[in-house]
Amino acid sequence: MYIFVMKGITVRHPARAAELFHALADPTRLEILDELKEGECCVCELTDRLQAGQSRLSFHLKVLKDAGMIVDRREGRWMYYSVNAAALAELDELVESFKQTKRARRASGCC
Amino acid sequence: MYIFVMKGITVRHPARAAELFHALADPTRLEILDELKEGECCVCELTDRLQAGQSRLSFHLKVLKDAGMIVDRREGRWMYYSVNAAALAELDELVESFKQTKRARRASGCC
DNA sequence: CACATATATCAATGATTCTTGATCAATAAA
DNA sequence: TTTATTGATCAAGAATCATTGATATATGTG
Q1: A42 touching chain B per CB within 8 A
Q2: Which distant-in-sequence residues (6+ apart) come within 8 Å of B13 by Cβ?
């Protein structure tokens, strides 16, 4: 489960990295993020735009929130969600980590 | 299922993006990638390093390969796997896409 | 050819995830 | 205080995913 987002903490934590990627591993959640990147948005608005049932949307918002991808804010009876910039930075860092230290492995002789 | 990796094709395809992220949403697969980023590697070597059973490793390699994250090459009886640079570029592009067009949504009035 | 090795695939099982509809909690308005 | 609205949570079922052990498919060697 998501605890906090901090620069540099993720690369050596496959479980946390997997959680973050899992949050992104669903078309509905990607569509939610696609909406949220335009700015903060309430659930009812997302329901309209994504043609998704309320509990289904709520489920996916929870996954995204638990992973730290989005944050919420209550205003009256509305919940407003928005993308968490820190998580985007964390994602960047993770993707960068895949590219590091590509040194030559010994050329021949397996196992 | 994965078909091909091409710059620019993914951002508007949530199903493809989800497949790519799903491939990364597992600690074992992240550990595989962590090994592969050091260079091409055969399955038996991964089995040793990751302390994972052969069929389990084979399963995860297939998921990564189907998603286009890695490529394979046969040499004699060994299969060598390595990271697919094009997929890394695609990932970069996807993460970038989360940051685009953060224009202000209308300030008040929900639904 | 017979045998060994490396790896893929298959089948069964258990675990996790997603969807749906129902209910609950909080807030606001009449 | 009753009623409406927004959204979270819960329970059940379906779908997907991961693990394991067994078997199949190369490929190479004697």
Answers
A1: yes
A2: none
